[in-house]
């Protein structure tokens, strides 16, 4: 019991809550850029083995950090009674756009080349990268005073961004509009799962007043995402859901367009 308590006390060690573009934020941006630079240098040595290592390094570490986060937030220690109690924090259930790369990477690490892997890669390259980009530039709501949570957040989002860039720069996602729609279909599948979870968990009666808002599209809780919260408060739910899906598709289309133009420019240079 004492060992468990000490472990959780260590994991719950506090720090001064980081600020956007402060030393902690800039440190992780630096780690992210260095990682991309190193992987870019290794591009000429690309292999399926290298791909698997990249996916597993990100996926396994992200999974461990996510598990530790769930345990840290759900276990409560009473120093008076010396007892540990469990209270799962439903609002932090790990099924958001930014947490799906964890299991997508772990799955893809063991998939052979094919349509399923191509679609999952396109999802990582064009859609989950949107959450990473938003966290890079607007990390305010992600920072807390818990060291573990801050490290988890940075690895989850910035690591995912590195994986997405790795897939794009190695052209593991075909430079064609079909790739965008393949990724979009995967996104829609996850949206469908999120809707089912939001409805079933809410009506199960297990929330006890807690928030449960997967992909931030629950009809019962207002989104905490900037702009989307205002939209949801002012339009009917189904219109909000439609706007949300279209907005993410347009975001994915912008990423695809940048990817397409970069590859087109690279081809022109090679011809010269």
Essential attributes:
272 residues; mainly alpha; two-stranded antiparallel ribbon; 2 strands
Describe the structure.
With 272 residues, the chain is mainly α. 67% of the residues lie in helices and 3% in strands. It has a two-stranded antiparallel ribbon with strand order 1-2. A hairpin with a 4-residue loop joins strand 1 and strand 2. The chain is globular, with a radius of gyration of 20 Å. 29% of the residues are buried. The mean pLDDT is 91.
Mean pLDDT over the full residue set = 91
- How far apart lie the N and C ends? 68 Å
Lateral arrangement of strands in the main beta sheet = 1-2
Number of β-strand runs: 2
Total helices: the number is 9
Instruction: Return the string of H and E elements.
Output: HHHEEHHHHHH
**Rounded radius of gyration (Å):** 20 Å
Low-pLDDT stretches are none
Structural class: mainly alpha
Shape category = globular
Strand proportion, as a percent range, falls in under 5%
Helix percent band = 55-70%
Major β-sheet, in short?
A: 2 strands, antiparallel
Secondary-structure map with pairings?
Elements: H1 2-11, H2 23-41, H3 48-74, E1 75-78, E2 83-86, H4 100-108, H5 115-137, H6 147-169, H7 177-204, H8 228-234, H9 237-271
Antiparallel strand pairs: 1-2
Helix pairs in contact: 2-6, 3-4, 3-6, 4-5, 5-6, 5-7, 5-9, 7-9
Question: What's this, in brief?
Answer:
With 272 residues, the chain is an all-alpha fold. The chain has helices at 2-11, 23-41, 48-74, 100-108, 115-137, 147-169, 177-204, 228-234, 237-271; strands spanning 75-78, 83-86. The protein is globular.
């Amino acid at each position: 019991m004492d060992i468990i308590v000490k472990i959780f006390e260590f994991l719950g060690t506090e720090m001064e809550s980081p600020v956007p573009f402060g030393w902690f934020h800039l440190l992780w941006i630096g780690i992210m850029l260095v990682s991309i630079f190193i992987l870019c240098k290794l591009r000429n040595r690309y292999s399926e083995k290298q791909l698997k290592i990249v996916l597993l390094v990100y996926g396994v570490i992200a999974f461990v950090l996510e598990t530790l986060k769930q345990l840290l937030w759900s276990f409560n220690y009473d120093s008076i009674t010396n007892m540990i109690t469990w209270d799962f924090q439903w609002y932090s259930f790990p099924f958001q756009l930014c947490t799906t790369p964890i299991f997508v990477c772990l799955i893809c690490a063991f998939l052979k080349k094919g349509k399923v892997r191509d679609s999952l890669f396109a999802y990582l390259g064009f859609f989950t990268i949107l959450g990473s980009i938003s966290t890079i530039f607007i990390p305010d709501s992600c920072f807390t005073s818990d060291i573990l949570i801050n490290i988890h957040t940075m690895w989850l989002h910035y690591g995912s961004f590195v994986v997405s860039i790795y897939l794009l720069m190695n052209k593991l996602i075909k430079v064609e509009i079909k790739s965008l729609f393949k990724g979009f279909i995967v996104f829609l599948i996850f949206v469908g799962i999120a809707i089912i979870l939001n409805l079933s968990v809410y009506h199960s009666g297990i929330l006890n007043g807690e928030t449960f808002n997967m992909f931030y599209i629950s009809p019962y809780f207002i989104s905490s995402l900037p702009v989307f919260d205002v939209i949801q408060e002012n339009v009917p739910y189904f219109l909000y859901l439609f706007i949300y899906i279209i907005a993410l598709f347009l975001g994915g289309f912008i990423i695809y367009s940048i990817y397409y133009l970069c590859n087109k420019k690279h081809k022109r240079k090679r011809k010269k």
